[in-house]
Amino acid sequence: MPTVSIHRMQDTIAAFASYLREERMLRPSTTDKYVRVVTEFAAFLAAECGGGPVAIEAAGKDVLARFLRREASSTGEPSRVTWNARLSALRAYYSFLVGQGAITVNPAQQIGRQRVHTHEPLPLTLDEVIRLVDVAETSSRPGQRTRNVAIVKVLFHTSLRVAELVSLDVTHPDFENYEFHEVRTKGDKRLSLPFNDVVAEALEVYLKDREQMDLATDERALFLSDRRQRLAVRTVQQLVRAYAKKAGISRKVT
Questions:
Q1: Separation CA 186–CA 163 (nearest Å)
Q2: DSSP per residue over the chain, as a string?
Q3: What's the pLDDT at 222?
Q4: Phi first, then psi: what are they for 161, rounded to 5°?
Q5: Hey, how many other C-beta atoms are within 10 angstroms of the C-beta on 92?
């Protein structure tokens, strides 16, 4: 098993960046984020080894966990989103090293992701949200079912407003970091907004169906109408209201 010094690790980071861009075809912002995390991890390992040579294969689960805990708490408060984002970078880096034959085991795969709890923006009970999802599953036409379920789950498990939801493109969901990238929000700001496992699963199921649609090659919208165009805000509003009525929710759901 080769020993990788801090200088050699810097060489692997450069190759890792090329791998992310050319083979994984990740967004430039994601590539930059991953490279930054791994570069910080290299500095962390060097400090752990007193500035001497760094044996990458010696950086097991415990070392990675210490790095993740330190970075996730750098603001004074533990951050599950930060933990997951940095873990994704380390998993990708070690997977790259395995593929290159530098190591045989990816220790980052032995560390679990943190469950991200997003805030419920509407005063609906869990039972009411479940009923809405059930209605979306049973009342939608086959070609719309996974789309409508995903819409309901995104709206009720994230902080996105309807206008922001319909503005999403297929490039916005980042399933490694569990967030929507650079969403245009109120005030023309661009923010990255987290989502949870429930939303991730619904989006992945819907995207498989979307791939089977006959689309124009330049269609970027995530959620599409029957005409294979971006959904309108009014369409989603009417959809949610109709589902709320069928679910027996008497009060107004906006």
A1: 9
A2: -----HHHHHHHHHHHHHHHHHTS---HHHHHHHHHHHHHHHHHHHHHTTTS---GGG--HHHHHHHHHHHHTTTSS--HHHHHHHHHHHHHHHHHHHHTTS-S--GGGGSPPPPP-----S---HHHHHHHHHHHHHHS-TTTHHHHHHHHHHHHHSS--HHHHHT-BTTSEETTTTEEEEEEETTTEEEEEE--HHHHHHHHHHHHHHHTS---TT--BSSB-TTSSBPPHHHHHHHHHHHHHHTT--S---
A3: 93
A4: -85, 170
A5: 23
Number of residues written out for the chain = 254
- The number of beta carbons lying within 10 Å of the beta carbon of residue 230 is 17
pLDDT at residue 150 in the model:
93
Q: What is the pLDDT of residue 76?
A: 52
- The CB-side HSE value for 7 (13 A sphere, CA atoms) comes to 1
Nearest residue to 239 via CA among 171, 150, 127, 160: 150
d(CA 217, CA 131): 36
**Res. 120 pLDDT band, cuts 50 70 90:** very low
Place of tokens 């759901």: 253
pLDDT tens-place string over residues 167-212: 999 989 988 888 888 887 766 677 888 888 889 999 999 999 988 8
pTM of the model: 0.53
